[in-house]
Amino acid sequence: MNKVIDMHAHFFPEEVPDFAAEFGSSGWPSVEHVSSESANIMIDGKLFRPITYACWNSRKRLRDMDELGIDIQIICATPVLFAYHRPVEQALTLAKWLNDKAIEICQPEPARLKALCQVPLQDIGAACEEVSRCMQNGHVGVQIGNHVGLKNLDDEGIERFLHHCADIGAPVLVHPWDMMAPERMPNYMLPWLVAMPAETQLSILSLILSGGFERLPRSLKICFAHGGGSFPYLLGRVDNAWKHRDIVRKDCPHLPSSYVDRFYVDSAVFHSDALSLLVKTMGSERVMLGSDYPFPLGEQVIGELVKTHPELSEPVKSRILANNAAEFFNL
């Protein structure tokens, strides 16, 4: 039986300190419990998202892992907690509290539950200090959002943070958040269905077309969530633009598709044809199992898409289900 490592799963603490009162500002997420097994994430008294106790209860998480045959799961905070728009002192307070809470959630079975940390990415010095602290304290990497306000991943400061992560051996998971054009997508979860894949493609192309991957060391381990969003499907369009428009290639010395060996993606694409394209585009050594557990938009039977895929060989399935993540996260 294949070993299984789920490298993209989320947590949300059972209780969150009253940061609104502590800092005298609005917009901080809080938890409103509905029952012993369900709660709502609230922001300024309005529902942001319903969640279940799988978000904070390690025993429930481990039971689900046992039922689904998951050997190891790597957890990270829900992106609504990034707080990149806050003063750095406030964001750092939240990050340290969350990072310690993540380790606490992993404590019942630390060999099976691993954590990614969070950093105040709006202040590169503080972010570098916190990721260094966390890597010493047992975290296996760091999760960052795909942008900080108007700054994409090719921002000089964010590139400096990524270089620091490479220097200290901290793998990076890039997660889309704060999606574009919400005023045009008020219904049907369209920001998650339309803007989120676009945000991920934007973050990948920001590093490729700006020459970011030319400046960053090859030792950087960086993964983009949700199968790279719309990137794999539209890579041919990007290559075509690079060939025929000088404004596309002015900072990018090589064909965009030549950079797929510089990053990883997870497998959360939910369709066998999409997974086939993803593996063909990225190479089987660059795709890792990621479920987005425990949210409704995640893979409900974790690993099923890979395990039952009619075209992938058993060695390829083994790489995607566990081997790639074991290498990426030094497990």
TrEMBL record:
GO terms for cellular component: cytosol. It comes from the Bacteria. SUPFAM superfamilies: Metallo-dependent hydrolases (SSF51556). Keywords: Decarboxylase, Lyase, Metal-binding, Zinc. The keyword Metal-binding applies. Pathway: Secondary metabolite metabolism; quinolate metabolism. It is an enzyme of class 4 (lyase). Signal peptide: none annotated. It holds the Pfam family Amidohydro_2. GO terms for molecular function: aminocarboxymuconate-semialdehyde decarboxylase activity; hydrolase activity; metal ion binding. PANTHER family: 2-AMINO-3-CARBOXYLMUCONATE-6-SEMIALDEHYDE DECARBOXYLASE (PTHR21240), 2-AMINO-3-CARBOXYMUCONATE-6-SEMIALDEHYDE DECARBOXYLASE (PTHR21240:SF27). Belongs to the metallo-dependent hydrolases superfamily. ACMSD family. Monomer. This is 2-amino-3-carboxymuconate-6-semialdehyde decarboxylase. It comes from Saliniradius amylolyticus.
